Structures are given as C-alpha cells and as structure tokens.
Amino acid sequence: VVDDAILYAVETGARIINMSFSIGQNPAVDAAIQFAYEQYECVLIAASGNSGGAVSYPAKHSCVIAVGATDSNDIRPEWSNHGPELEVVAPGVEILSTRPNSNYSSQNTDTSFTAPHVSGIVALLLSTNPDLTPDEIREIMQSTVEDKGEPRFDEYYGYGRVNAYKALKYALEHYGGMITKSFTIPPGETWTFQPGVTLKFADDVSLTVNGVVTVQGTSTEPIIFTSSSSQSLARLLVWNSG
Fold first, then answer.
1. Rounded CA gap, 114 and 116, in Å?
2. Strands of 177-179's sheet, edge to edge?
3. Where are the alpha helices (DSSP H) in the chain?
C-alpha cells in the first residue's frame, strides 16, 4: 500500500512526500522511494520514530530526510529515535493540531509532528525556486540548522534544529528564485548573493535594504535582478570587479 501511495503521489505531480509513520522495511517501498527520488526529484521526509531506539523505516532510507524531535527548550526527548541516518530535528512536543479532539496532550507529542515542519520548509523553498533538486534542498537544510548537541553532526540531533528563515535566506543567496512578497533586510543583517544567482521580482514587489547586501558575481557569472513582468524586461547585472 505504501509503495502504491508513493507512486501515485509522484505520478500526479507531488514534489514533497511527508511520511509520518514507521513500517517494516519492504523491497517494494524501497524501490518506490528510489524511483520517486531519482526519476521525479521528489523530496521525501519521514519521522525518525518514537521508541528511543534506532531510526525507523522509511526514515532510515538513504533517499529520505529523517526528522527527530526537540522540545520547547530545544532538547531532544529520550523517546525520539536517533542514529547515523538522522538528518535534522524539529519541534515535536505539545504541538497544536487539527487532529480531532486534539489539544496540548501526549497524543501531539511524537516525531509524526516533526516531519511536517520540514515538509513545510521544503514547500517554502520550492515555492521560490521549483528547480531546486532534492540534493540541493538537503544541502540547504544541513547548512542552515541551529546546531545542537555535538558540533556539526551527532546521532541525537543530526545536523541540528531546522530554521525556516535561514533556509529561505540561504536558498535565495545561493540558488536565486522568485520573490513574491516585499521584504526588508533589517539593520545589522547581511545577505550575500553568490555568482550566477538570478532573483526575479513579481509585479509590485520590492526589496528594502536597511542592512547590507553583498554581491559575489563575476563578469561570466553575474548576479541578475529582474522583473517577472512581461512588460518590464529591465535587468540589473552585478558582479565584483575587485
């Protein structure tokens, strides 16, 4: 059933599959996950599990982003599964839900509620740049977490606790994308755009810089700011001359 669901999802256009469940390892599910990842560039996210033991399946599959839990103090609960396959952690304790008869209670405390946090961040990234690949999204997530536990990576927190703002900032700086809402870079903050990045602005959308914008383009890989409007084709090409 799970393999059929994965294949149905990708064949109907899904780019993100959230798997807030654990099952026994299955060759058919293995094949479906591999197919979705390689042929459809689908991002698959799964809950690490709630037994306090090893990362469960399908989270431990190499093509899946395994997500563990943290509480409101950014501390991993003992029941959150861990291991070398764990990639990131996200809030998973006392999570409000639309689940029937749900409130702040034990039923809202498990890694089933952590994976959707990551799926939501991935959706945000793809909404600005649908050309991002699963490997690029993984790199973005790993590079923008709040480091917890041992430095860089450990088997209890993975690379760290996810941060949606940092992920979006990093994605725009390194891969570009479409800006659909006006925003302001606040004082004291620096955005550094890398060579070859193209930023497209929807109609009537602006970027206000109260902080600092640094451009790292070159004459062969300029940074391009352009309007998405067919009525306005003006472009600003920027590169570092020094």
1. 6
2. 177-179, 198-201, 223-227, 235-238
3. 2-11, 27-39, 115-128, 134-143, 164-175
> Quick one: which H or E segment has residue 148?
none
Cα–Cα–Cα angle for 57, 58, 63, nearest 5°? 130
Structure token pair of residue 127: 């909404």
- Give 74's DSSP letter: S
Measure Cα distances from 171 to 86, 124, 129, 174, 236 in Å: 22, 10, 8, 5, 20
Please state whether the predicted TM-score (pTM) of the whole model is above 0.70.
yes
The amino acid present at 109, given as its one-letter code, is T
- pLDDT for residue 216 is more than 90: no
The whole-angstrom separation of Cα 51 and Cα 53 is 5
Residues near 216 by Cβ (< 8 Å), separated by ≥ 6?
Answer: 192, 193, 194, 195, 223, 240
Dist CA 140 CA 142 (whole Å): 6
Q: End-to-end distance of the chain based on CA atoms, in angstroms?
A: 58
Three-state DSSP at 99 gives coil
The predicted-structure confidence for 20-66, as pLDDT tens digits, reads as follows 999 999 999 999 999 999 999 999 999 999 999 999 999 999 999 99
Amino acid at 237: L
What are the tokens at 157? 């927190």
